Amino acid sequence: MAFRADPLTDDLQPLTMRDAWASHLTDLVHTDPRVAVVLADISDDLFEEARKDHPDRVINVGIREQLLVGTAGGLALAGLRPIAHSYAPFLVERAFEQVKLDFEHQGTSGVLVSVGASYDWAEGSFTHFSPRDVALFDTVPGWRVFVPGHAAEVPPLLDRAVAADEGVYMRLSLRHNENPHAVPDDSLLVLREGNDATVVVVGPLLDNVLEATADLDVTVAYTNTPRPLDTVGLRELAADTGDAIVMVEPYLEGTSAWLVSQAYEDRPHRLLSIGVGREELRRYGTAAEHERLHGLDAAGIRARVRRFLGLA
Membrane-spanning residues where (predicted)? Predict the structure, then answer.
């Protein structure tokens, strides 16, 4: 994990994905005149410096998420590369009509950056949960999805998002892996090779998967760019493991099943999808507790993979 100095104590504090994103985006605002930041109060304090120097390109619309995305769409029409930001359920679910109309229908593109992920602020209850966000983006064509697993992965992904021609959804989380992993393109990064199955893991669940499969004979591949999913690489890897595939994702279980099915329409395969369950958990404890209750901790993942392999 990267660190930053606390301005009050000079103590080193963990650098979160949001910290890394805001710091790098501030640099981009200073150096790239196309970049505009649109906020809805959330994280506004992180852009005070940038707003002083570029008040025309750092805009806070207040707690109006539909206006947030609509404003970003208008800036895209004007030739800017807008980055709109809020909590995932407000940015994606609440303002999805604006994503559909002000980006897709208008033929524009921008970058939407969320925090909160599926249940990061579990204490905030169901209003702040968004496990369905990536599934929603699968319904609009052409959007890329970036899901970093560590704060150090955020700046290069942001650079790619700003330089892209397509719309990009970047999903930041407080959940993270111990170490970053460099993925220079959209290819799957193979971290372990085995014979019984290919396990593809997205973003911050990598450490849990590595622990869960430590003594299993499986291939483990990592991605922080699940859209587009590297289905060509997946087919090549899974051919060596009997076309047995496990998809582990930090959002709604089964979100990528349609892509795997599409990639395998010409040959038989077995697929186990592991992700956030569809049943609402009405116990608003901590994110770690929700992870455990959804079976996304190492023990839960291990149990399901072992059953899939016929080892339980």
Answer: none
